[in-house]
Records
---
Amino acid sequence: MFAALSPQFRSVDNVRSIVDAAAVLAVVTCGITFVLMMGSIDLSAAGVMGASALTVSLLVANNRNDNDFGFLGIVVAVLLGCAFGSLSGFALVLLKVPSFMATLGVSAIGLGVATLMFAGVQPNISDTMLESWAIERFLGFSYLAWIAAACILVGWLIQRYTRLGRYAFAIGGAEEVLTLSGVKVRPYKVAVFTFAGAFYGLGGVMVTSQLGAGLVQAGNGYDFSAITAAVVGGTLLTGGRGGVLHSAVGVLLVMVLTNGLVQVGVSPYWQGGVEGVIVVAAVAAAVIPQRRRNQVVK
Amino acid sequence: MRIAAILSLSLTAAVLAGCSEQQAGAGDDTAAASGACEASKVRLVGQVRNESNPYEASWLAGGDAFAKSVGLTQERLTYGGDSTKQQEQISQILAGDTKCLVMNVLPNGDSDTAPIVKGADKAGAYLVTQWNKPADLKPADYQTWLSHITYNGVESGQQIGDALAKKIGSGGIIALQGVLDTAAAKDRFTGLQASLKNNPDIKLLDQQAANFSRAEALTVTKTLLAKHGNKVKGIWAANDDMALGALEALQQAGLSGKVAVVGIDAVPDAVTAIQKGDMTATVSSDGAWQGGIGLAIGFCYATGKLKVADTAADNRAFFAKQFLITKENAADFAQPKTDPADFECGNVFNRKAGPLT
């Protein structure tokens, strides 16, 4: 539809711009998809990304200190994401805090940690490798886009071929049945949150690469965009359905939508509203087949 | 006996009055309102949203610098952009000793100013507010709300628009707007439109909201560059964060240095970018000065060096001077710093650029 309305929308440049812009959201959505499949929800992305963005920008070459750990800094930031993820997971299974509150809390902790590290001066990165992720291109797409593609592939393989992925599905579908058949679900729940945390950590690193600086607000809005993208792609909030590939399609749809509205020239005063209407309509269309079978909507 | 009875009665009365007016505590503060505080007894409080952005961090640093110059320390309060939290902090401060209290406050939004002003007025605390207030709420109607300081967004929007026009001469530009329902975003964009009227060779190709955010500006700029291609000669951003996001987008599109970028706020990174020639101009409200001046004004009134009755009406609410930063003067703004002379009681209103109407 957008392609018909705007010739620039069809251009190669614009396809690149959509894919590049979708990279971070794709990685975050990949992580959140596993949590959603399990029937839980995860609102920790914003905080975890902020903390990991600050961590990575302070560990690689930057203008605040003399650190220059390069790739190791990136690994540490991703591990920090894992740590936050497992914190959510443990809060859920040991303290029985509903995932909604547990992850919201972890998000606040992440933002707090990030603010402490920020300390009033924005760290700008000068690490050539991390900067090149956003600028250098391979086969027309930025490295970030390829990283996102790799994440989707890894996510899909895990979902398809490992016990973790299959159990995540099963937990979302029928946790009681799984427990009755003797499976210990709690370690898997923690593992899924940890795994999702790693993706948010990487997302934070990628935002830092894009912006060239560590921002506390690096993950601002990604939590809800990722949930939206996953749901638009057909992953159900009640769990047990959907998957990484569904979500990847959802991410592209959402990005095409935001990009298309700008390309077509919808006034910025209208865009927010128009976007919301289209998302609700798209999800409604996607769940029509389910509505007949399952009358309950919550 | 009788004396004791009267004494205890009056004591009870005093306690009762104290209870019913705990927040107010106005009765015995007439002395403070006339400014009889000793300099060492003054309590200085600076309140901003958070310390996680360079501008507000420099604000608090400026407050510290002033406090140090008069041998006091500033109490630093941050409320994380949360209106409720701001009101709670204010009422906690006002519940304590308010006799020689001086507050320099950045209200979260226009509607947050009224309760702060009323609380401070009741408690007899000296208050200076900055940036946000509803138009019909005026310091002149209050005793201890000394002044409201803000900046003319139309002027800054126009200044950077003109600087952009001067740099590129002619051609197309794109505009990145702030949060659309804020006065700052509206005024600054009005300024750009005024600038466009004066520079007919500049054409506004597109305008999009990027909500004052660096990350959103990056995405929006990329999209707009894909849409308009090399017709884009300049980018007007309603704040520096968005300008910096636009710079990243230009770098990723391989257009570094080919498109001029302007912003507002003079955050340190933007000033560095101007020094390096990546950015063309920004406008500074001088955050460090803002942090110091509110406390300085309050201090001068609290110690009786200035008197409310003698203060000119247009000193009670005014637009402060702002500075256009270009490559020529960027070095002077590279580090936020304060000039003690600005904070002397005779000079506190020197940066008035015009009355706020």
---
Amino acid sequence: MIEFAHIEKSFFGVNVLKDVSLAVKPGQTVGLVGENGAGKSTLMNILGGNVRADAGEMRLDGQPYAPDSPRDAERAGIAFIHQELNLFSTLSIAENLFIGGFPRSRSWLPFINRRQMLQRTRSLLAEVNLPHAPDTLIERLSAGERQLVEIAKALALDARLIILDEPTTSLTARETERLFAILARLRARGLSLIYISHSLDHVLRLCDQIVVLRDGAVVANEPAVRFAMDRLVSLMVGREITQLFPPRAARPTKEVVLDVRDVAQPGIVRGIAFQLCRGEVLGLSGLMGAGRSELARILFGLDPCAAGDIRLEGESIRHLPASERIERGLAFLTEDRRAEGLCPEASIADNVTLVALPRLLRSWLGWLDRPRVAAEVRRMREAVKLTPTARDGQPVKTLSGGNQQKVVLAKWLLQEPKVFLLDEPTRGIDVGARYEVYRLIRQLAARGTGVLLISSEVEELLGMCDRILVMRGGAIRDTIEPHEFDRERILRAALHHGGLA
Amino acid sequence: MASLPALRLLKRALLADHLVLWLCLVYSAALAPFTPGFASWGNLQTILAYAMPILVVSVGLTLVLIVGGIDLSVTSIVALASVVGGKVMSADEGWLAGHALAVPAGLLAMLSVSAGLGAINGLAVTACRIPPFIATLTTMMLVSGLAIWLTLSRKIGGLPPGFVRLGQELWLAGMTAGVTTWLAHLALSCTLYGKWLYAIGHNARAASVSGVPVARVTFFTYVVSGWFAGLAAILFTAGLETGNPEMARDNLLDVVGAVVIGGTSLYGGRGRVSGTVFGVLFLALVDNSLNLLGLTFYTITMVKGGAILAAALTDALRNRLLTQE
């Protein structure tokens, strides 16, 4: 139904798309994979009318198609569901679905036909299996439900091709299953899908055809059955990665560094007790809303803790503010990089040194030791292998997601933490950067840091951790030792007893 | 499009670091031939004497804007501090009239009252989490009311000569303004406090997760802003030889305008003291030259308003050019 032929695009003299040709047939689901910066987003922005190609053409049902704006694309039946959802959180579901054009009672009167709007919303919500009233506000929906509203919105526009960009990053396992069931139904109705994701297992499961982009060129375009995970990864990276996880350098010690005793906060978590040893990587699994991130925030001192005790190297830190916990050796990589992890407008150097700055002073007046600051920035850049092309003074927001995450890591590594709480450290970053993050975690553990790794990706936990805790409903439900590592057991504990939802 | 030489020049000029300084020079050169008495030593002194106290207030406000706040109460703090100084020192009605320690006590009273009012702003913003706009607007109204109530709207004369010298002798006022401005510049560019200020302005949540004592730094910044207003009040009061409850009433526009013209962002995280210095200088030049040309106060205010609007537009344009790079 849509065909790209010899698409070329460059930005500021850099070729981001080179002679890209591919086709999507009606009812087909095409997976588009590649590292960050491989050109996926640019290609989809050309399709969605946000960007114009320098050369080449697109054909829609055999007709030349050259959208000038996202509206043109919409009219042609192409809907683009972005990674960051574009819904108005203070408006209702129905209002969001029809924001582009409300049904009117008389075409010449500026009044909305509420009845018709609610009726159509109900039938659209039924199509995506979302049992909510049409006037529910978006802010009351979970991330997964919002995703379904986005799809309903695409259906409201009579879309025939839906582009999904990383739809599962903020979804729980159960919500992902639900999304996939809906997508399968849409496909059966003849809708075409383009599915962009870093979660390769999802791509392999969902797609008929997989296109691999690398450095702006198509390096593979074959039916999904011909790919296996290893081959996909090596195609994306361009080199063979024999192992997705770096080898373990040292065994964890038996020396407890973080001792959490019956920590509770009403309505959030209860009876949390575990010990983290020096050099241990402790995984924390669970669905979204199970209380994992909340627990990390309590341990770090950002949220209150009503009962229990938290001991770092034997001393209670429960009543200390976050800044003092940091001084004592606690570090926290937050799940929301842009809102809490970084000052996006500030430079790489300022971000890297933000935490450690009080230790880089020359005198009591708060005078900065500039040569030492610069030297530390240089040292950390090498330690995390930040892209060498970026200048120290460059704003962090100009970096790719992977490099931004490396800046956050550098910021904390400079502090040489004793306990590092990592909340979804590999979310939204490409395969290469992911491997770097894993390497740094291993390095930290080898040096004796206790690592608490929160992740929604079971593979990641199985590959990286020495022990895995599973949370559900604000409590720890299962502790899994390495010899018992089992995907299904984790999922079962996270979901409920019984099988998968 | 940007390949045209003229456009490229314009683009370079817009991105230049000291754009406002260049503007000052170009403006002065352009107006000097038509404005009688503009380019004279005496007039330069007038301009500097006018600009000095405004500079001190503006530097304080620059810090508040960088941390992502706003302080609308600075000029009313100037007025109240001026009244307090008069009430303490005046030979006619002062509490310490004629006392040997009247001047030091007066200075101390003016600075502590201002810093105290800054602290109230700081508490309102950090502990009570009132938006800075509302918090400082309220302080502004309360404080200007208080200044007028204390004096029943009269001016206080009879200030001791030792105090008046502080404002009348240009070098003394210049030293005071210069040293404080320089200190603020050093604090911003070379100290932990400066780095923290920018970090909070960029992203307060990220700063707080990184262990920056956000509330403490923000609070301290409002205190400093109040303190700077008190220092400016000394210069204003000594310069005009009266404690006046309406002191600096019409200068809020100059202060905010100078900081914005100097390139400090109203959204926080960006700004420099040097920019504020040039912004103050530019508005002082405009004010002085138009006065000499015989324009009325209202016309001058309109022209200044236009200049500030132009500065805001330039800033928006600069941002766009910078993000295109």
---
Amino acid sequence: MKGKVTVMAALVAVFCLFMVGAVQAQAPAAKNVVIGFTASQTGKLNVEGMRQINGLNLWMERVNAAGGVKLADGSAVKFSSKFYDDESNKGRVQELYTKLINDDKANFLVSPYSSGLTDAAAVIAQQNNRIMITAGAASDSTYKKGFTLVFQTYTPASRYLTGAVDILAKLNPKAKKIAIVHEKDKFSTDVVNDLKKYAEGKGYQIVLFEGYDPGTTDFAPFINKFPADVDAIMGGGHFADTSTFAKQLHEKGIKPTVVALLVAPPEPKFAELGEAAVGIIGASQWEPAAKYAPEVAKAKNLEWFGPTVAEFVEAYKKKYNEEPSYHSAGGFVAGLLIEKAIATAGSIDTEKVKAALDAMDIMTFYGHIKFDTSPAAHGLQVGHDMIYIQWQKDPKGALVKEVVWPEEAKTKDVIPMPKKK
Amino acid sequence: MKAWRQPGFWLPVLFILVWGLYVLIVRQDSTREQAFTLLMFVGLASSLNILLGYTGYVSFGHIVFFGLGGYSGFYFLSAHNLPLMLSAILGGVVSAVLAGLIGLAVLRLRGAYFALATIGVNEAARAFVSNFEPFGGATGLFVNYSVYEGFGGPGPALWRTFIYLWITVLIIVVVSYAIKNSRFGLGLLAIREDEDAAMVMGVQAPRAKTVAFMFSAFFPGLIGTLYFFKNGNVEPGDAFSLHMSIEMLVMVMLGGMGTVFGPVIGAVAYQGLRGFLLTNPLFKNLHLAIAGVFLLLIVLFVPAGAIGWLRERSLKLRKVLE
């Protein structure tokens, strides 16, 4: 009898072991999802490009540390990245994206920084049925070309500077005249063309509308053309030219109610202009002082996803020892959107993830995210809004960057440009 | 006819023919993309060589023909829905006509003055296009993604563009050889050695230089259209990149000025190296520095370029390499 019991016990033990083994064998292995992208490590866009990579890497570290994303079959996916330097140059972008997809087996793509490079990369993404999240690439035209797998994180160029017109209306309801001077490149031209339409639609008179060549250092010919009673000056281009423009406006004593410029003002380095920076308004995709929070999402009946603003800023500062810019936030949120879409779809299949992105309507630390799903402008960002900052002086006389628009996100009231003493 | 049987002719032709066939047989997207980049530069360098190598005139702004021709071809394609290859040929014709007009003015200049004038022409063209509304001004032109559907989708469209480029580059090499071995080419080489003496000997230097300039401008215009079609858009910054213009000069000098095979080898070596360094995990952060050092060494120690160096080495090779 004892022998039989022993044999039975041994059989049960073997059976149990077998079952455990079988269960283990059935458990799906963790998958690795590769995010492929090119970045401007060198060339004229390298500062923006590097910050974007930092943001994306921080997201990847965070999601992998949390165990990855759970799929419908119970398995989890973790993320790794593969990227190449595109030298801020279109020459090899298509070659590099083809390599990322075919040789490096990238499952999802993040776009290069600029719109021109993204247009070229999107052809390859579309050809290979890969989803591409764009970070940078603000021009609306990219999303009006018929791509179905390209999704934008930034507020598009058409809404980039239009808030400045609303700010002017608030500061001076009687204002009538706006002068627009801009860099003649794709991004800046796209922004000001829509700005002009918006301003004219609101009844403003555009008294000057001129472009300058990239690399311009002398703005006197434009400044001399401003009428004495101009109410606002808007435009600019990228960091170097816009900073010089702001400086020369100050030197010539041109102080209309509003001066709103592109790209340069949100950069902390802009404060080096000293007095010339005071009162200047800039449009930013995101600021560390942004007031997006789970409570705001709840009030707007939106789902909140990802870290809070404070958590993101703290983690970024800890890892990179610097304040995150909107480029850093853009890199992080590009990853966050892939994470959310995979989680919703429960799969990494392109069609299912695309459907999840199409239906996405969420709020994150970066703001509201929702995509246009019409065939005419598929993937265009329609949820996110710009934040407007203004350089003001604190009681001690130090320059401080304040969020002044929209009203619900402001840290200080917007002020008219102080007149030169 | 005898010239066509020379190894100097069929060696570069065979090289490009086999290379293209290999890409078509392997049929991998990444091989095609890599070959497209290399072939594009082979075509550009060989075109420039018709002016630089045969007449000795250094054109720093030769990319203007790639840009303006490409813009024109892209305009015919996007605004008038002309077929791709017809648009590309029209782009080439615009470049050639432009070169004829510019040539009449600037080819009277010599040496550094000519080089400076060509840079000026490139910058002027960029400024013109940035303000020319039919070409989209500063924002450029683009084609809707549905254009590729006409080719059966983006994949077949990219393959078709590659085949057009491959055939174009084959024609460029044949034309380059034909010019070099013609009476006209002999006149160009005489201009390169001593323009005044060539004129005394009966070479009509102004006309010969202008025709050479037009030949060297036609093909970049054609290639530009194919390249911009493949990208789906064109902007002034990409079309008139002075950096690319200087790269064209470097590739011609690396392979050997005035030879037919030289620019082919120079472009493949230079762009191949750049591509390798850019994607190699070990070098990808240092690629520009390494490419720079490599070029410095070549210019210092092999000034005649690869083919020039080989031709100097042995009489046998001189007969084989053209």
